[in-house]
Amino acid sequence: MGRTGQDGLTASAIAHSNIALAKYWGKRDSRLNIPAVGSISITLDALSTETAVSFSPDLQADELVLNGGSAPAQKASRVLDLIRERAGIDLAARVVSNNNFPTGAGLASSASGLAALAVAAAAAAGLELSSRELSIAARRGSASAARSIFGGFAELHSGSAADGSDSFAEQLMPAEDWPLSVVVAITQTEPKSVSSTEGMLSTSGSSPFYDAWVESAPAALDELRAAVLARDLEKTGALTERSCLAMHSLMFTTSPPLIYWNPATVAVIRRVTELRRDGIEGYFTIDAGPQVKIICEPDRAEQISASVAELPGVLQTITTRLGPAARLVQSP
Ligand code: 2P0
Fold first, then answer.
1. Residue 315: CB atoms within 10 Å
2. Does a cis peptide bond (omega within 30 degrees of 0) precede residue 324?
3. 329: in domain
4. pTM here?
5. What does DSSP assign to residue 330?
6. 95 in Cβ contact with 52 (< 8 Å)
7. Strand partners, 99
8. Which one of 20, 69, 129, 191 has the fewest CB atoms closer than 10 angstroms to its CB?
């Protein structure tokens, strides 16, 4: 991986969003952005971000242009700082990032965005980093981004090292080994009012169930990992729903409470459960937002999508297969 820009110090990359089957919520180190619990995710083909990075002596500070508008560059700068340190360069960067889906609405735009940034920034700085090093760099921006470096199924380790060197993601299984589909039911397109970063800080300081969540996470991960590797949809689905509801229980018991759901979120949960009773197998999961993602076999996706699309408050559905790893976009 070298410099891909015509004028050097410039590169572009694409990464796909991911959704966690076993959720991450809470940090063991806020400064280094190290998660308190491990997580397992699937990368989604249809939701992606393309990010261009240019280091330049003409800039005074890092700049981020997100979907055409100026945006805070704080998370991007944490990734860029690590890349600058590794490359021994002292230049600010301009980052131009475009999502092909709603930003900040619980569709993991920071996961795809910061994974694409890590890949592009490393190449722009002339570094050849391993996937593990890229995953650690992406994690510094957003922990979920560490997982989007990989395609298919990925696991992010919380690790125990104080410097976060053992908190990286790795691929658990490629998409081809278990080609599932995901139906995303969008119930709101505006960004959420409380960011994940703020929300999890608030939860760890106030939910009476936070310690139990952290303590029970390793066993929950072991169980889910085994179900995924066995390609057992019923078990994977049940454990996915349990992790999602455990995380939202933490959110509900945060002070002040974090209620990311809206009435349509609940309607979709109920519909997924009813469909399953009728033999149409799908399993829901919900992140820090009101959208519902339904995991199913590809031959069930159309029926599930049509059924949830008719519910009041469901604005749109997107059906996707599992996606590939983050990668550089070669310049012409
Ligand atoms: C996850 N989420 O495992 C969980 C489930 C949302 C709910 O990771 O603070 O944007 O930047 O590390 O990665 C979203 O949080 O948070 C997230 P930071 P991030 O997918």
1. 13
2. no
3. no
4. 0.95
5. P
6. yes
7. 49
8. 69
Task: Provide the CA 253 distance to its chain's centre, in angstroms.
Answer: 23
Q: How many structural domains compose the chain? A: 2
Mutate which of 110, 157, 286 to test ligand 1's pocket (most atoms within 8 Å of Cβ)? Answer: 110
Q: State the pLDDT at residue 140.
A: 98
Residue identifier of the C-alpha nearest atom 9 of ligand 1: 197
> Which tokens go with 168?
């990286």
- Arithmetic mean of pLDDT, 16-29: 98
Using a 6 Å cutoff on CB, does residue 144 contact ligand 1? yes
Please tell me if the CB atom of residue 143 comes closer than 6 angstroms to any atom of ligand 1: yes
Residue that is last in its domain, among 175, 201, 236: 175
Q: Which domain holds residue 273?
A: 181-321
Per the prediction, the chain carries an average pLDDT of 95
Ligand 1 atom index nearest CA of 287: 7
Q: Decide if 180 contacts 42 (C-beta within 8 A).
A: yes
Best mutation site among 109, 144, 254 for ligand 1, i.e. most ligand atoms within 8 A of its Cβ? 144
Across the range 309-314, mean pLDDT stands at 98
The atom number, within ligand 1, closest to the CA of 35 reads 12
Determine, yes or no, domain membership for 215: yes
Give the pair of three-digit tokens for residue 94.
């301009």
Amino acid at 180: L
CA of 6 to the centre of ligand 1 (A): 35
Cα distances from 149 to residues 16, 232, 263, 274, 326, in angstroms, run 8, 25, 34, 35, 5
Check residue 5 and give its pLDDT: 46
pLDDT reported for residue 7: 54
